[in-house]
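Sample entry (284 residues):
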Amino acid sequence: MRVATWNVNSVKQRLPRLLPWLDQRAPDVVCLQETKLADEAFTALLGGPLAERGYEVALNGEVQWNGVAILSRVGLTDVVRGIPDGPGFPDPEARAVSATCGGVRVHSVYVPNGREPDSDHYQYKLAWLAALRDNVVAGPDDVMVCGDINIAPTDADVFDPAAYVGHTHVTEPERAALTELLNAGLHDVVRDRWPDQRVYTYWDYRAGMFHRDLGMRIDLVLAGSPVADRVAAAWVDRHARKGSGPSDHAPVIVDLDEAPDGDIGPVVPPPSARGTTAKLPQSQ
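Predicted structure, serialized as tokens:
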């Protein structure tokens, strides 16, 4: 079973790339984030093309912002929109949807950004992650949490730790919240498989960050032990970030039980040469 997660940063904008990518990579389960469409609009736009490709769809969307989805061609049951009893800002946002696909409980999540350290949104982010952890603990061991976590787990997951000082995504409380989620019995399958490799999933659109490979790894696939033991390949499809009209995120792909393309490495194709130092565009 091939499972993928991708922050598409507007499914409407990414439509010319999404459907060909589905045909090329043939994932069995796809978790999407930042769909930025209400459920009715998503269905009107993509319901037909996805059905033609054999996908059932679970949605939790809203107009213009956020939005998550699960596409599955290995079954889709027990759909839950959002996180039960989870916090809002101030009302619940469309940031989570879960379903059972091929015997695995799959969560597609778009974790709040946090905006500024110690802001109200930052506290919301920490509370949201705690609610997600409680939800995972209450569920089965055969579980995958897939999505834009908006946290770089360690300094090795950003191009230059010094560039991120004073910014979200790298602070100790955020990383501690992610550790608590992992302590629910989850494994970061890409990092477990490639402990020493430079792997990024997000590159800012500005300042040539992608071409200089100045990125961060914030899109994760976290799996319970029974699922993690089945991982045959885990990699970032960097090719989907190239060319015209890309998302600023690349898909993460995990193959369970067998790897149709082989165990091909952490990043496909390999990244460009990395620059030495740089500031974040928002800091310039």
